[in-house]
Amino acid sequence: xxxxxxxxxxxxxxxxxxxxxxxxxxxxxxxxxxxxxxxxxxxxxxxxxxxxxxxxxxxxxxxxxxxxxxxxxxxxxxxxxxxxxxxxxxxxxxxxxxxxxxxxxxxxxxxxxxxxxxxxxxxxxxxxxxxxxxxxxxxxxxxxxxxxxxxxxxxxxxxxxxxxxxxxxxxxxxxxxxxxxxxxxxxxxxxxxxxxxxxxxxxxxxxxxxxxxxxxxxxxxxxxxxxxxxxxxxxxxxxxxxxxxxxxxxxxxxxxxxxxxxxxxxxxxxxxxxxxxxxxxxxxxxxxxxxxxxxxxxxxxxxxxxxxxxxxxxxxxxxxxxxxxxxxxxxxxxxxxxxxxxxxxxxxxxxxxxxxxxxxxxxxxxxxxxxxxxxxxxxxxxxxxxxxxxxxxxxxxxxxxxxxxxxxxxxxxxxxxxxxxxxxxxxxxxxxxxxxxxxxxxxxxxxxxxxxxxxxxxxx
Length: 460
What we know:
2 domains, transmembrane, transmembrane helix, Poly_Biosynth_Transport, cell membrane
Protein backbone atom coordinates (compact mmCIF):
# COMPACT_ATOMS: atom_id res chain seq x y z
CA UNK A 1 0.00 0.00 0.00
CA UNK A 2 2.94 2.33 0.60
CA UNK A 3 4.04 1.58 -2.97
CA UNK A 4 0.58 2.68 -4.17
CA UNK A 5 1.01 5.95 -2.30
CA UNK A 6 4.33 6.55 -4.03
CA UNK A 7 2.72 5.82 -7.42
CA UNK A 8 0.24 8.60 -6.73
CA UNK A 9 3.12 11.06 -6.97
CA UNK A 10 2.42 10.79 -10.70
CA UNK A 11 -0.68 12.85 -9.94
CA UNK A 12 1.76 15.79 -9.53
CA UNK A 13 -0.75 17.58 -7.31
CA UNK A 14 -3.25 17.87 -10.19
CA UNK A 15 -6.18 16.58 -8.14
CA UNK A 16 -5.87 19.27 -5.50
CA UNK A 17 -5.13 21.85 -8.20
CA UNK A 18 -8.45 21.13 -9.91
CA UNK A 19 -10.36 21.27 -6.61
CA UNK A 20 -8.85 24.64 -5.70
CA UNK A 21 -9.36 26.17 -9.13
CA UNK A 22 -12.94 24.87 -9.40
CA UNK A 23 -13.76 26.21 -5.93
CA UNK A 24 -12.45 29.66 -6.83
CA UNK A 25 -14.31 29.67 -10.15
CA UNK A 26 -17.45 28.49 -8.37
CA UNK A 27 -17.14 31.41 -5.97
CA UNK A 28 -17.20 33.72 -8.99
CA UNK A 29 -20.06 31.80 -10.60
CA UNK A 30 -17.94 31.13 -13.72
CA UNK A 31 -19.25 27.85 -15.17
CA UNK A 32 -17.31 28.19 -18.42
CA UNK A 33 -14.07 28.34 -16.41
CA UNK A 34 -15.06 25.21 -14.46
CA UNK A 35 -15.75 23.33 -17.70
CA UNK A 36 -12.33 24.35 -19.05
CA UNK A 37 -10.68 23.17 -15.81
CA UNK A 38 -12.41 19.78 -16.05
CA UNK A 39 -11.37 19.23 -19.68
CA UNK A 40 -7.75 20.17 -19.08
CA UNK A 41 -7.56 18.17 -15.86
CA UNK A 42 -8.97 15.11 -17.63
CA UNK A 43 -6.21 15.38 -20.25
CA UNK A 44 -3.44 15.78 -17.66
CA UNK A 45 -4.56 12.91 -15.42
CA UNK A 46 -4.89 10.68 -18.50
CA UNK A 47 -1.25 11.39 -19.35
CA UNK A 48 -0.29 10.70 -15.71
CA UNK A 49 -2.23 7.42 -15.87
CA UNK A 50 -0.33 6.38 -18.98
CA UNK A 51 2.93 7.10 -17.13
CA UNK A 52 1.89 4.89 -14.21
CA UNK A 53 0.68 2.19 -16.59
CA UNK A 54 4.01 2.21 -18.41
CA UNK A 55 5.97 1.92 -15.14
CA UNK A 56 3.80 -0.93 -13.87
CA UNK A 57 3.88 -2.92 -17.11
CA UNK A 58 7.63 -2.39 -17.40
CA UNK A 59 8.19 -3.64 -13.85
CA UNK A 60 5.85 -6.58 -14.47
CA UNK A 61 7.63 -7.77 -17.62
CA UNK A 62 11.03 -7.37 -15.92
CA UNK A 63 9.86 -9.55 -13.02
CA UNK A 64 8.49 -12.19 -15.37
CA UNK A 65 11.58 -12.16 -17.59
CA UNK A 66 14.11 -12.15 -14.72
CA UNK A 67 13.22 -14.87 -12.19
CA UNK A 68 16.36 -13.97 -10.21
CA UNK A 69 14.89 -10.54 -9.41
CA UNK A 70 11.56 -12.10 -8.44
CA UNK A 71 13.34 -14.52 -6.13
CA UNK A 72 15.24 -11.67 -4.49
CA UNK A 73 11.95 -9.95 -3.70
CA UNK A 74 10.95 -13.07 -1.83
CA UNK A 75 7.33 -13.39 -3.00
CA UNK A 76 6.04 -15.30 -6.02
CA UNK A 77 2.76 -13.37 -5.97
CA UNK A 78 4.50 -10.04 -6.53
CA UNK A 79 3.72 -9.75 -10.30
CA UNK A 80 -0.04 -10.15 -9.82
CA UNK A 81 -0.07 -7.86 -6.81
CA UNK A 82 1.94 -5.28 -8.76
CA UNK A 83 -0.67 -5.25 -11.54
CA UNK A 84 -3.52 -4.85 -9.05
CA UNK A 85 -1.78 -1.98 -7.24
CA UNK A 86 -1.05 -0.30 -10.57
CA UNK A 87 -4.69 -0.66 -11.63
CA UNK A 88 -5.76 0.95 -8.36
CA UNK A 89 -3.44 3.92 -8.94
CA UNK A 90 -4.61 4.36 -12.54
CA UNK A 91 -8.27 4.23 -11.48
CA UNK A 92 -7.68 6.82 -8.75
CA UNK A 93 -6.10 9.15 -11.28
CA UNK A 94 -8.80 8.74 -13.92
CA UNK A 95 -11.72 9.26 -11.54
CA UNK A 96 -10.13 12.26 -9.78
CA UNK A 97 -11.76 14.91 -12.06
CA UNK A 98 -15.21 13.60 -11.02
CA UNK A 99 -14.53 13.76 -7.30
CA UNK A 100 -12.68 17.04 -7.81
CA UNK A 101 -15.81 18.56 -9.34
CA UNK A 102 -17.98 17.34 -6.46
CA UNK A 103 -15.59 18.83 -3.91
CA UNK A 104 -14.96 22.04 -5.79
CA UNK A 105 -18.68 22.94 -6.01
CA UNK A 106 -19.20 22.26 -2.29
CA UNK A 107 -20.71 18.77 -2.68
CA UNK A 108 -18.17 17.01 -0.50
CA UNK A 109 -20.93 14.79 0.91
CA UNK A 110 -21.44 13.16 -2.50
CA UNK A 111 -17.72 12.54 -2.99
CA UNK A 112 -17.45 11.10 0.53
CA UNK A 113 -20.53 8.93 -0.02
CA UNK A 114 -19.26 7.32 -3.21
CA UNK A 115 -15.72 6.93 -1.86
CA UNK A 116 -17.07 5.33 1.31
CA UNK A 117 -19.34 2.97 -0.64
CA UNK A 118 -16.41 2.05 -2.87
CA UNK A 119 -14.23 1.17 0.11
CA UNK A 120 -16.99 -0.87 1.73
CA UNK A 121 -17.94 -2.78 -1.41
CA UNK A 122 -14.27 -3.26 -2.21
CA UNK A 123 -13.59 -4.69 1.24
CA UNK A 124 -16.51 -7.11 0.97
CA UNK A 125 -15.38 -8.18 -2.50
CA UNK A 126 -11.83 -8.78 -1.29
CA UNK A 127 -13.05 -10.89 1.64
CA UNK A 128 -15.28 -12.99 -0.62
CA UNK A 129 -12.46 -13.62 -3.09
CA UNK A 130 -10.04 -14.37 -0.24
CA UNK A 131 -12.33 -17.17 0.98
CA UNK A 132 -11.62 -19.00 -2.30
CA UNK A 133 -7.88 -19.14 -1.45
CA UNK A 134 -7.13 -16.89 -4.43
CA UNK A 135 -3.78 -15.15 -4.82
CA UNK A 136 -3.11 -11.70 -3.38
CA UNK A 137 -3.33 -10.20 -6.84
CA UNK A 138 -6.88 -11.48 -7.33
CA UNK A 139 -7.88 -10.44 -3.80
CA UNK A 140 -6.66 -6.88 -4.32
CA UNK A 141 -7.97 -6.92 -7.88
CA UNK A 142 -11.48 -7.66 -6.58
CA UNK A 143 -11.24 -4.54 -4.48
CA UNK A 144 -10.16 -2.49 -7.48
CA UNK A 145 -12.98 -3.90 -9.62
CA UNK A 146 -15.62 -3.01 -7.03
CA UNK A 147 -14.24 0.51 -6.67
CA UNK A 148 -14.26 0.81 -10.47
CA UNK A 149 -17.98 -0.05 -10.66
CA UNK A 150 -18.84 2.46 -7.90
CA UNK A 151 -16.69 5.09 -9.63
CA UNK A 152 -18.65 4.62 -12.86
CA UNK A 153 -21.89 5.19 -10.97
CA UNK A 154 -20.39 8.33 -9.41
CA UNK A 155 -19.31 9.57 -12.86
CA UNK A 156 -22.82 9.09 -14.29
CA UNK A 157 -24.35 10.88 -11.29
CA UNK A 158 -21.90 13.75 -11.66
CA UNK A 159 -22.68 14.09 -15.38
CA UNK A 160 -26.43 14.11 -14.81
CA UNK A 161 -26.10 16.62 -11.98
CA UNK A 162 -23.58 18.94 -13.65
CA UNK A 163 -23.90 18.36 -17.40
CA UNK A 164 -22.79 21.96 -18.00
CA UNK A 165 -19.32 21.08 -16.66
CA UNK A 166 -18.80 18.51 -19.43
CA UNK A 167 -19.72 20.62 -22.44
CA UNK A 168 -17.61 20.21 -25.56
CA UNK A 169 -14.49 22.29 -25.90
CA UNK A 170 -10.72 22.08 -26.47
CA UNK A 171 -8.81 19.74 -24.17
CA UNK A 172 -5.51 21.43 -24.99
CA UNK A 173 -5.60 24.87 -23.38
CA UNK A 174 -2.06 26.14 -22.92
CA UNK A 175 -2.97 28.75 -20.32
CA UNK A 176 -5.12 26.33 -18.32
CA UNK A 177 -2.41 23.66 -18.47
CA UNK A 178 0.18 26.11 -17.12
CA UNK A 179 -2.12 27.19 -14.28
CA UNK A 180 -2.93 23.61 -13.25
CA UNK A 181 0.68 22.45 -13.44
CA UNK A 182 1.87 25.47 -11.47
CA UNK A 183 -0.81 24.99 -8.81
CA UNK A 184 -0.24 21.23 -8.79
CA UNK A 185 3.50 21.64 -8.32
CA UNK A 186 2.88 23.56 -5.10
CA UNK A 187 0.58 20.79 -3.86
CA UNK A 188 3.07 18.10 -4.89
CA UNK A 189 5.84 19.52 -2.72
CA UNK A 190 3.44 19.43 0.23
CA UNK A 191 2.44 15.87 -0.65
CA UNK A 192 6.05 14.68 -0.78
CA UNK A 193 6.84 16.49 2.47
CA UNK A 194 3.86 14.88 4.21
CA UNK A 195 4.93 11.41 3.09
CA UNK A 196 8.48 11.98 4.34
CA UNK A 197 7.26 13.40 7.67
CA UNK A 198 4.85 10.51 8.13
CA UNK A 199 7.40 7.79 7.42
CA UNK A 200 10.41 9.36 9.18
CA UNK A 201 9.58 8.18 12.75
CA UNK A 202 8.97 4.57 11.67
CA UNK A 203 12.08 4.59 9.46
CA UNK A 204 14.23 5.92 12.32
CA UNK A 205 12.94 3.34 14.79
CA UNK A 206 13.29 0.41 12.39
CA UNK A 207 16.75 1.45 11.17
CA UNK A 208 18.45 2.35 14.44
CA UNK A 209 16.45 0.61 17.18
CA UNK A 210 15.55 -2.51 15.22
CA UNK A 211 12.47 -3.83 13.42
CA UNK A 212 11.30 -5.55 16.62
CA UNK A 213 10.54 -2.12 18.14
CA UNK A 214 8.39 -0.88 15.25
CA UNK A 215 5.08 -2.20 16.73
CA UNK A 216 5.74 -0.11 19.86
CA UNK A 217 5.34 2.96 17.62
CA UNK A 218 3.04 1.78 14.82
CA UNK A 219 0.30 0.32 17.04
CA UNK A 220 -0.25 3.35 19.33
CA UNK A 221 0.18 5.70 16.36
CA UNK A 222 -2.57 3.86 14.48
CA UNK A 223 -4.84 4.09 17.54
CA UNK A 224 -4.32 7.83 17.92
CA UNK A 225 -4.58 8.62 14.20
CA UNK A 226 -7.97 6.91 13.91
CA UNK A 227 -9.84 9.68 15.79
CA UNK A 228 -7.44 12.40 14.64
CA UNK A 229 -8.40 11.58 11.05
CA UNK A 230 -11.84 12.97 11.85
CA UNK A 231 -10.25 16.39 12.36
CA UNK A 232 -8.26 16.03 9.14
CA UNK A 233 -11.40 15.02 7.23
CA UNK A 234 -13.25 18.05 8.56
CA UNK A 235 -10.40 20.30 7.41
CA UNK A 236 -10.48 18.63 3.99
CA UNK A 237 -14.21 19.37 3.71
CA UNK A 238 -13.54 23.04 4.43
CA UNK A 239 -10.75 23.32 1.87
CA UNK A 240 -12.97 24.04 -1.18
CA UNK A 241 -14.94 26.49 0.99
CA UNK A 242 -11.76 28.44 1.68
CA UNK A 243 -11.11 28.65 -2.06
CA UNK A 244 -14.63 29.81 -2.82
CA UNK A 245 -14.50 32.40 -0.02
CA UNK A 246 -11.14 33.67 -1.31
CA UNK A 247 -12.69 34.03 -4.75
CA UNK A 248 -15.31 36.32 -3.17
CA UNK A 249 -12.61 38.11 -1.13
CA UNK A 250 -14.16 37.05 2.18
CA UNK A 251 -10.95 36.89 4.19
CA UNK A 252 -12.84 37.69 7.41
CA UNK A 253 -14.90 34.49 7.08
CA UNK A 254 -11.77 32.45 6.42
CA UNK A 255 -10.03 33.87 9.50
CA UNK A 256 -13.03 33.27 11.76
CA UNK A 257 -13.45 29.70 10.46
CA UNK A 258 -9.78 28.87 11.02
CA UNK A 259 -9.94 30.36 14.51
CA UNK A 260 -12.96 28.19 15.34
CA UNK A 261 -11.34 25.05 13.94
CA UNK A 262 -8.13 25.72 15.86
CA UNK A 263 -10.08 26.19 19.09
CA UNK A 264 -12.25 23.12 18.66
CA UNK A 265 -9.21 21.19 17.43
CA UNK A 266 -7.31 21.98 20.63
CA UNK A 267 -10.34 20.84 22.67
CA UNK A 268 -10.50 17.60 20.67
CA UNK A 269 -6.75 16.93 20.81
CA UNK A 270 -6.71 17.70 24.55
CA UNK A 271 -9.29 15.08 25.51
CA UNK A 272 -7.73 12.55 23.11
CA UNK A 273 -4.24 13.11 24.52
CA UNK A 274 -5.32 12.84 28.15
CA UNK A 275 -7.25 9.64 27.50
CA UNK A 276 -4.54 8.21 25.27
CA UNK A 277 -1.68 8.78 27.71
CA UNK A 278 -3.60 6.99 30.48
CA UNK A 279 -5.53 4.26 28.64
CA UNK A 280 -3.44 3.32 25.59
CA UNK A 281 -0.93 1.19 27.52
CA UNK A 282 -3.50 -1.10 29.24
CA UNK A 283 -5.63 -1.23 26.11
CA UNK A 284 -2.72 -2.34 23.91
CA UNK A 285 -1.79 -4.93 26.54
CA UNK A 286 -5.28 -6.41 26.30
CA UNK A 287 -5.35 -6.14 22.53
CA UNK A 288 -2.01 -7.89 22.00
CA UNK A 289 -2.55 -10.40 24.83
CA UNK A 290 0.35 -8.91 26.79
CA UNK A 291 2.85 -9.10 23.92
CA UNK A 292 3.32 -5.33 23.48
CA UNK A 293 3.79 -3.14 26.56
CA UNK A 294 4.30 0.40 25.28
CA UNK A 295 6.27 2.63 27.70
CA UNK A 296 4.76 5.99 28.70
CA UNK A 297 7.57 7.89 27.00
CA UNK A 298 6.65 6.29 23.67
CA UNK A 299 2.99 7.23 24.20
CA UNK A 300 4.10 10.82 24.74
CA UNK A 301 6.14 10.63 21.53
CA UNK A 302 3.07 9.41 19.66
CA UNK A 303 1.02 12.33 21.01
CA UNK A 304 3.72 14.76 19.86
CA UNK A 305 3.77 13.22 16.38
CA UNK A 306 0.03 12.96 15.89
CA UNK A 307 -0.88 16.20 17.64
CA UNK A 308 1.62 18.36 15.76
CA UNK A 309 0.53 16.83 12.44
CA UNK A 310 -3.14 17.54 13.23
CA UNK A 311 -2.50 21.19 14.13
CA UNK A 312 -0.35 21.72 11.03
CA UNK A 313 -3.16 20.16 8.99
CA UNK A 314 -5.43 23.09 9.87
CA UNK A 315 -2.95 25.55 8.35
CA UNK A 316 -2.07 23.25 5.47
CA UNK A 317 -5.65 22.78 4.26
CA UNK A 318 -6.35 26.50 4.69
CA UNK A 319 -3.33 27.53 2.62
CA UNK A 320 -4.01 25.02 -0.14
CA UNK A 321 -7.68 26.05 -0.11
CA UNK A 322 -6.85 29.70 -0.80
CA UNK A 323 -4.08 28.70 -3.22
CA UNK A 324 -1.31 30.42 -1.24
CA UNK A 325 0.92 27.43 -0.58
CA UNK A 326 3.97 27.76 -2.84
CA UNK A 327 6.32 28.75 0.00
CA UNK A 328 4.44 26.45 2.38
CA UNK A 329 5.04 23.56 -0.03
CA UNK A 330 8.80 24.00 0.15
CA UNK A 331 8.49 24.34 3.93
CA UNK A 332 6.65 21.01 4.09
CA UNK A 333 9.35 19.41 1.96
CA UNK A 334 12.00 20.84 4.28
CA UNK A 335 10.00 19.54 7.24
CA UNK A 336 9.97 16.04 5.76
CA UNK A 337 13.72 16.05 5.14
CA UNK A 338 14.36 17.54 8.59
CA UNK A 339 12.19 14.84 10.17
CA UNK A 340 14.38 12.13 8.67
CA UNK A 341 17.45 13.73 10.28
CA UNK A 342 15.89 14.83 13.59
CA UNK A 343 14.10 11.53 14.25
CA UNK A 344 17.27 9.59 13.51
CA UNK A 345 19.32 11.75 15.90
CA UNK A 346 16.63 11.49 18.61
CA UNK A 347 16.59 7.69 18.42
CA UNK A 348 20.39 7.41 18.40
CA UNK A 349 20.85 9.82 21.31
CA UNK A 350 17.86 9.08 23.54
CA UNK A 351 16.45 5.74 22.42
CA UNK A 352 13.43 4.76 20.36
CA UNK A 353 10.97 6.39 22.80
CA UNK A 354 12.35 9.85 21.96
CA UNK A 355 11.45 9.69 18.26
CA UNK A 356 8.53 12.07 18.84
CA UNK A 357 10.88 14.75 20.13
CA UNK A 358 12.74 14.65 16.82
CA UNK A 359 9.50 14.90 14.86
CA UNK A 360 8.34 17.90 16.93
CA UNK A 361 11.69 19.69 16.56
CA UNK A 362 11.53 19.26 12.77
CA UNK A 363 8.03 20.78 12.70
CA UNK A 364 8.97 23.74 14.92
CA UNK A 365 12.04 24.55 12.81
CA UNK A 366 10.13 24.54 9.50
CA UNK A 367 6.36 24.35 8.95
CA UNK A 368 5.56 25.23 12.56
CA UNK A 369 6.30 28.89 11.87
CA UNK A 370 6.30 29.12 8.07
CA UNK A 371 2.69 27.97 7.58
CA UNK A 372 1.20 30.40 10.14
CA UNK A 373 3.35 33.22 8.72
CA UNK A 374 2.13 32.53 5.18
CA UNK A 375 -1.47 32.42 6.38
CA UNK A 376 -1.02 35.74 8.20
CA UNK A 377 0.38 37.28 5.03
CA UNK A 378 -2.51 35.98 2.90
CA UNK A 379 -5.31 37.13 5.22
CA UNK A 380 -3.96 40.63 5.84
CA UNK A 381 -5.72 42.39 8.72
CA UNK A 382 -7.99 39.40 9.46
CA UNK A 383 -6.07 37.07 11.75
CA UNK A 384 -7.15 33.61 13.01
CA UNK A 385 -5.03 33.28 16.15
CA UNK A 386 -6.30 31.98 19.49
CA UNK A 387 -6.13 34.03 22.67
CA UNK A 388 -3.82 33.07 25.54
CA UNK A 389 -6.52 32.78 28.24
CA UNK A 390 -8.52 29.93 26.66
CA UNK A 391 -5.30 28.11 25.80
CA UNK A 392 -4.26 28.19 29.47
CA UNK A 393 -7.74 27.00 30.47
CA UNK A 394 -7.54 24.06 28.06
CA UNK A 395 -4.11 23.17 29.42
CA UNK A 396 -5.56 23.17 32.94
CA UNK A 397 -8.42 20.89 31.83
CA UNK A 398 -5.91 18.54 30.22
CA UNK A 399 -3.73 18.33 33.34
CA UNK A 400 -6.61 17.78 35.80
CA UNK A 401 -8.31 15.13 33.66
CA UNK A 402 -4.95 13.37 33.23
CA UNK A 403 -4.40 13.17 37.00
CA UNK A 404 -7.97 12.06 37.75
CA UNK A 405 -7.82 9.44 35.00
CA UNK A 406 -4.59 8.00 36.36
CA UNK A 407 -6.04 7.88 39.87
CA UNK A 408 -9.20 6.13 38.64
CA UNK A 409 -7.18 3.56 36.66
CA UNK A 410 -5.02 2.76 39.70
CA UNK A 411 -8.03 2.33 42.00
CA UNK A 412 -10.17 0.19 39.67
CA UNK A 413 -7.47 -2.02 38.10
CA UNK A 414 -7.67 -4.64 40.92
CA UNK A 415 -11.29 -5.28 39.88
CA UNK A 416 -10.35 -5.99 36.27
CA UNK A 417 -8.41 -4.15 33.60
CA UNK A 418 -11.39 -3.93 31.23
CA UNK A 419 -13.55 -2.24 33.88
CA UNK A 420 -10.67 0.03 34.84
CA UNK A 421 -10.27 1.24 31.24
CA UNK A 422 -14.01 1.95 30.87
CA UNK A 423 -14.32 3.72 34.23
CA UNK A 424 -11.15 5.77 33.76
CA UNK A 425 -12.26 6.81 30.28
CA UNK A 426 -15.52 8.08 31.70
CA UNK A 427 -13.70 10.01 34.42
CA UNK A 428 -11.34 11.63 31.91
CA UNK A 429 -14.10 12.69 29.51
CA UNK A 430 -16.35 13.99 32.29
CA UNK A 431 -13.59 15.92 34.03
CA UNK A 432 -12.19 17.38 30.81
CA UNK A 433 -15.44 18.62 29.30
CA UNK A 434 -16.71 19.73 32.68
CA UNK A 435 -13.70 22.01 33.06
CA UNK A 436 -13.97 23.16 29.43
CA UNK A 437 -17.57 24.16 30.07
CA UNK A 438 -16.57 25.95 33.27
CA UNK A 439 -13.40 27.67 32.04
CA UNK A 440 -14.04 28.02 28.28
CA UNK A 441 -17.75 28.69 27.86
CA UNK A 442 -17.24 30.03 24.31
CA UNK A 443 -15.71 26.77 23.11
CA UNK A 444 -18.38 24.77 24.90
CA UNK A 445 -21.14 26.71 23.12
CA UNK A 446 -19.40 26.28 19.75
CA UNK A 447 -19.19 22.51 20.27
CA UNK A 448 -22.83 22.37 21.33
CA UNK A 449 -23.95 24.37 18.31
CA UNK A 450 -21.84 22.22 15.98
CA UNK A 451 -23.35 18.99 17.34
CA UNK A 452 -26.90 20.36 17.21
CA UNK A 453 -26.29 21.54 13.66
CA UNK A 454 -25.21 18.04 12.66
CA UNK A 455 -28.38 16.65 14.27
CA UNK A 456 -30.50 19.10 12.34
CA UNK A 457 -31.54 21.12 15.40
CA UNK A 458 -31.02 24.67 16.56
CA UNK A 459 -29.71 25.63 19.98
CA UNK A 460 -32.34 26.74 22.41
